[in-house]
Amino acid sequence: MNTIIDKSKSKLKKAKVMNANLPPLKPLTSPWMHELVGDFKLQEALLKEWQSPLNIHHLPSFQENCREYRQILDTYNFNSNIFFARKANKFKNLIPAAIEAGAGIDTASFRELEQCLELGIAPDRLISTAAIKEDRLINLAVKHGVLLILDNTDELEHVLRVAAGLKQPALIGIRISGFNFKGEKLYSRFGFDIDEVESVVHRFYSSPEAASHVKLRGFHFHLDGYSTAQRGAALHQTLDVIKNLDLKSEKPFFIDIGGGVLMNYLSSEQEWDIFQGTLKEAVAGERRPITFGNDGLGFTLKEGAVEGSLATYPYYNEYSKVTFLKEILQTPNANSKTVAQRLEQENRELRLEPGRSLLNQVGVTLARVVHRKKDSRGDYLVGLEMNMSQLKSSSADFLLDPFVSYQNPDPEAEPVAVYFTGAYCLERDVLLKRKIQLSQLPEPGDVVCFINTAGYMMHFFETEAHLFERATNLSIKKSEGPYQPVDFNPEH
Ligand SMILES: *Cc1c(COP(=O)(O)O)cnc(C)c1O
Questions:
Q1: pLDDT exceeds 80 at position 485
Q2: Is the C-beta atom of 86 inside 6 A of ligand 1?
Q3: 158 in contact with ligand 1, CB cutoff 6 A
């Protein structure tokens, strides 16, 4: 008999002791997720038709997020617009859903822009913030009157040439970085330095040709990290730039503050604290590892002491869209004027480009269990029909407990702790670095459901190594009876 299904009592008891105190990280969930997870037959049918893994979206939740942003912004007395940062998720059907719910789309590549135009999205609902703007992208944007956010003088000159050639004015915003914060500059590889932006604009617009072909509509920044104080400071400094420039414009200048609005994934602060404490103990060698290969996820051991901090997204935090935006907009300047007051008094439009936070509670990823085994360290490895690139972001790990749908639930079963492993021929293709406690050992054919994966996790880093195909994206909807797939989109 295979040891994996050898349910001899002594073995299970031993496993229990070794895995004692494996800290849970319970995700925040929505009713639609529970209905899906509770319906093994539906999951099995979906995986049979569209293969594993499968990304499932709930568009009403996405539209609700769009409308919430609108409602929050409507409580202020200045103009505002939101643009969904397309790069956070490739599912095409999010585009019309965003437009219908009152948001525009922030595109960041030629194909992202082309796809939106092909879908018939009005050019004034689109912007391009692409980091690299090749000739065909600039041509496409200028031809259709889509606003480009510019990063450097080469781009300015390129846009001027294209606009002059097409005899069509180009609409632009200028990206700024290098804001002063607490006596230091906030470095970014993107944008014009705040200290030179005024002279660049003056120089460029000293030419009447430039002024006739390239229309400046506003300014843009997108800061790394999630600091509201930095965003507030950057807004004041951008408001100052616009004031100093004293340019004429038919419309109010906009300030686009990019994305990075924090969202919360976890239900318990206590679990979050306990998890970090336990991880540190494991890194210090005081207990059995709780991560694959005792990965510290940012914590390291130096001369017997644990140093560093978690290199993951702050999966638990207490911000909401309302409180995050409020903190930014209430930031005062030296004259005690808040950002919100200045936007109103100086007649500027505020723009946001949220990606992740608009996808909160919008998606899950289903994957089929293929095999189980026990490795030489005595850990259970559960092989899933998916790979690491299909659950990956810039975060060191995705710190949420998944759900498992068992085809044969066994209330008598002993709990087990497992690692989920993927299909790439890499030792590090372990889908979650955390060891996960389950109520029973999954069997081949059971389904693992990773929760809240629509923002980046599903496919930002998805690759096709080994010629594995990219996962299918679809959305589900409930009319009468159970949820049904409604929006299959083979083009991703
Ligand atoms: C990534 C990005 C966004 C979206 O950021 P989120 O953290 O997903 O909200 C918006 N604007 C720009 C320019 C970006 O690079």
A1: no
A2: no
A3: no
